[in-house]
Amino acid sequence: EGHGRESIIPDLDISRTVGWFTSLYPVSLQIKADQDITGRIKTVKENLRQIPQKGIGYGLIKYLSDHPKAHEWTGHPEIRFNYLGQFDQDVRNGKMEVSPYSSGKTASDNRPLTYTLDINGMISDGRLSLAISYCGKQYQRETMEACADLLKNSLQQVIAHCDAQDQIHLTPSDISLKGITIGELDQFVQQTSHLGDIENIYPLTPMQKGMLFHSLIDSASEAYFEQAAFDLKGFLDIDAFRMSLAHLAEKYDILRTLFYTEWKDQPLQIVFRQKPIETAVEDIPS
Known about the structure:
- By secondary structure, the protein is α+β, with helices and mostly antiparallel strands.
- The chain folds into 2 domains: 127 residues, Nonribosomal peptide synthetase, condensation domain (Chloramphenicol Acetyltransferase); 101 residues, Chloramphenicol Acetyltransferase.
- It is built from 7 helices and 6 strands.
- It has a 3-stranded mixed beta sheet. The chain has a 3-stranded antiparallel beta sheet with strand order 4-6-5, with no helix packed on it.
- Helix 3 links the parallel strand 1 and strand 2.
- The mean pLDDT is 88.
């Protein structure tokens, strides 16, 4: 379940509306039994990011359209998950605060449950809390407590694993190159690990492909090879000059980019997170 306040129509301003529009959509998480925790995290991340517009179109197509396959969407999930957000941040940035008083029950205890398990999560007072609703006639309290403990342990394992990482692990949705799988990207990162940490991967533009072609066919060619010389008068602070180049490289991706030609016969350009600009200084006495 999501709040449904997605920016899907450019000319529609919903900033002055209050409340949730509530979008419900099914998600199938394909987790393999032999996957390690890294693989499970990446798989779930990619599954969720592949959902268009965070699922807001599912209800529109199923209930309000004449889509030819709408009648085939008859499956009903048994678990509903709703993350309400980080209330600490909302309260800290506004003039409202969470009331200490109970609002009471939002619905009758005798109402039929729509889902077997209904899980609502939120962050408040710096802590993540999960509330699990279920039917007492279907599950015993001890069973649900055991389920909650397993869920808590799994979350703690994920947190400990992520906290122990010393570098960012990319997945296909993090980069601009399309049509690459999680396994292929992991292999690509391993192949280029000696060059640095990758920030993004792009295909080459047609002009870049032409420039690369001429460079590969004749490495001694002066085509597209430009040099510039400048004469400076006065004192040059070498350290400040190098620092300025470092700031430029940090700001502009192109200064941290190189061409890579060893991937499936497809030339690519790789943007690295850090790529210092090399400078050579030669002191020539007058």
